[in-house]
Each structure stands twice: as C-alpha cells, then as structure tokens.
Amino acid sequence: MLSWVVILGITAIITISVLIPRVAGATPYVILTGSMEPAMPPGTLVVAKPVDPEKIGVGTVVTYQLKSGEPTVVTHRVTQVGITSTGQYRLTTQGDANNTPDEKLVRPVQIRGERWYYVPYVGYVTNLVTGSQRHAFTVLAVIGLFGYAAWMFVGAARDRRRPSGEPTDIDTPQTRKEPVRS
After folding, report:
1. What pTM did the predictor assign?
2. Which of 39, 89, 119, 178 is the most buried (most CB within 10 A)?
3. Residue 7: enclosing H or E segment and its boundaries?
4. Tell me: the pLDDT tens digits for 136-177?
5. pLDDT at position 157, please?
C-alpha cells in the first residue's frame, strides 16, 4: 500500500510541476524568499499563465521580471494600477509579508504571467533538478513508474494463478525434519 502512495505522490509532483504547465502554456516558478508568506512560503511552486497586462487588477498576484529581458523574477500582489503622466500603464506591487510597496513600478513588458495555482514546498523538489536535467529526470521518472507498475501487475497476475490455499514462500513455515529417535 505504501508503495502506491509513493508512486501517486511522485506522479502528482511531476504532473503539477511539469506536465500541466507545459500543456497549458504556463510557466512554473519557485518562490525563494518570505515576501509572500504566510500563504506562499519559500519553496512554493507558483505556476503563472500568460495574461494581458492591461487586464490585471488590484489584488492579482503576478510574476514579473525585475528588469525587462533578464531572468530574475518576483511574484508579488498588485496593489495599484495606474497611468503615468506620460500615458504609460504601470503596476504597483507588494509582497504580502512586506510593509511597503515595491520601489519600482512594473511595466507591461516585465509581466511574465498571472498566478494560476501554487503548491507550497513542491518548489524545493523541482529546484533540485533544473533545465534540461528536469526533462531527463521527468522521462526517467515516468519510465521508472511504468516499470514499477508493470512489475506490480506481473506479481499480482502470478498470485492470481496460484491455487487458493497454496502457501506462498512467506506463508510456508520453516521446519526442519529430523528423524525421531527413541
């Protein structure tokens, strides 16, 4: 029974962190700081789906680049939506655990996506394997899970073919037959 729980757990982690985002065109990110606690502690996997920046409202959690074109991202809540004096659309963001809004306004080009779903602590697992390693790990994990399932299936089929009442190796008592001396 425990082995099935482990298999289901591994399958769920792979599905949540790799397969669903890939199929849906979303991107998984991992929260590394405590700025979004208590709901999203460090190690939380956040999956962000693409969004039209002009449809983002106050209260929406977004993932954005600190500097446009650079890989470093932040996931914070939008606290204000506005237009600058030059007519530029901008967002003010703030981490849930932070006392003040973020210093810099966020431009639409910086937005990577809107939070679709998140799973606390699963990000620690996905951070262990990154980039091309993640793809190879996923393939190996899927092959391993299918292999294990096949092994369990063959074992169960073998047990069904055994006549009922016939003891298995585990059930067979271990006795020694010695000649009786009188």
Report:
1. 0.67
2. 119
3. helix 2-14
4. 776 777 787 788 778 877 877 777 776 666 555 555 555 656
5. 76
Token pair of 31 as six digits: 């929260």
Using DSSP's 3-state secondary structure scheme, residue 15 falls into helix
Beta carbons within 8 Å of 81's beta carbon, 6+ residues apart: 56, 57, 58, 89, 90, 91, 92
76-92 in b/e burial notation, b at 16+ Cβ within 10 A?
bbbeeeeeeeeeeeebb
Query: Which tokens is 105 given?
Result: 């306004």
Residues of the chain with pLDDT under 70: 1-2, 129-135, 138, 162-182
* Long-range pairs, 139-144, Cβ under 8 A, ≥24: 141/10, 141/14, 142/14
All domains of the chain in start order, with CATH: 2-135 (2.10.109.10)
